[in-house]
Write a structure and sequence with these properties.
Radius of gyration: 17 Å
Mean pLDDT: 90
Strand content: 25-35%
CATH superfamily: tt1808, chain A
Helix content: 10-25%
Structural class: alpha+beta
Order of helices and strands: HEEHEEEEEEHHEEEEEH
Low-confidence stretches: 193-197
Shape: globular
Number of helices: 5
CATH architecture: Alpha-Beta Complex
Largest sheet: 6 strands, mixed
CATH class: Alpha Beta
Amino acid sequence: MSTLPKPFISEERYLELDRAAEYKSEYYDGEMYAMAGAGMAHNQIVLNTGATLHTQLRGKNCQALMSDMRTRIGSAARYAYPDVSVICGKPEVLDRRKDILTNPTVIIEVLSPSTADFDRSFKFVAYTAIPSLRQYVLIATDRISVEVFTRQPDGLWAPPAKATALDETIALESIECRLALADVYDRVEFPAAEASA
């Protein structure tokens, strides 16, 4: 059985459809991708991470935003919904509806087994086209693991700093914050064999 190619959807049509839809879709190069619902661990990690950053950023020039904020990826026709974003300074938005962010400083993606490869490869490369982006954070849901990729002054991305134990803390220098893994994984349960992986 052959598969018919998906019809090309313009950027304008994507925004019209996504803004009217009951569910979120990301957009890459003319195609829309509906976002699947997330499990318990994913939701706990997103909330825990957003809450700890919100607390640390109070009174500072940066703010954390949760996963309902659409982000335009560079100048390409690409849009995503990062799990957590941090912006510093004045938020830059694409139009007067103020529902498309263009200047995140930090993007955090919480991985699931089905999205991990995409978030590590295609999405990471796409996000590097955002000039304001300084750090990209990947948080696993199936084990204790946080990775932080940092853009260097020369524009290149350093190999990730990694933390894999609940008693570790990892730095987000670009926003002068720290993520304690005990906070990130608070109340998250893993299968016994994977909890210490």
